[in-house]
Recover the amino acids of this structure.
């Protein structure tokens, strides 16, 4: 969708475009309210930096829609399609799949949430190393990292949906 068309959408139509990027009401509504954007760079900058950090409740809501890294998203929703595309570049042979499964389990035991990382542009080895590193985070640091990753995923998805 062209940026000009996005700017012209009703609030309800814009919400249906934005919600698959990240299911956080405040993020969606703040972006809608900030329209019109003159460039896609302005839109993505606002989406990445202009909206204050996600709180724990917003993270929990958004993470409910994300599959474990290395697992295929289920369903026919736009979110599921986007997630499958983001993880499509991972080289998941049996060994890598097993290692990701263990990493996911360790992370979930430690933080009681799914391990979230922007998979696009990362190798399986990079993802495993990041999971290992983040297991050493305290809760507050990890919440901040999850929020950053979620925002990066949202902006990637937004850039896939909106053109200049």
């Amino acid at each position: 969708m062209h940026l000009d068309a996005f700017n012209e959408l009703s609030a309800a139509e814009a919400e249906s475009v934005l919600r698959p990027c990240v299911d956080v009401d405040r993020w969606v509504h703040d972006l809608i309210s900030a329209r019109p954007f003159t460039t896609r760079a302005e839109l993505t900058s606002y989406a990445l930096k202009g909206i204050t950090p996600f709180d724990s409740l917003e993270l929990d809501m958004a993470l409910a829609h994300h599959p474990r890294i290395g697992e295929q998203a289920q369903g026919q929703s736009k979110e599921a399609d986007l997630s499958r595309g983001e993880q499509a570049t991972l080289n998941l042979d049996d060994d890598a799949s097993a290692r990701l499964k263990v990493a996911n389990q360790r992370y979930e035991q430690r933080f009681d949430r799914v391990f979230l990382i922007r998979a696009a542009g990362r190798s399986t080895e990079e993802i495993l190393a990041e999971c290992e590193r983040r297991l050493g985070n305290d809760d507050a640091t990890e919440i901040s990292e999850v929020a950053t990753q979620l925002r990066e995923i949202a902006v990637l998805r937004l850039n896939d949906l909106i053109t200049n």
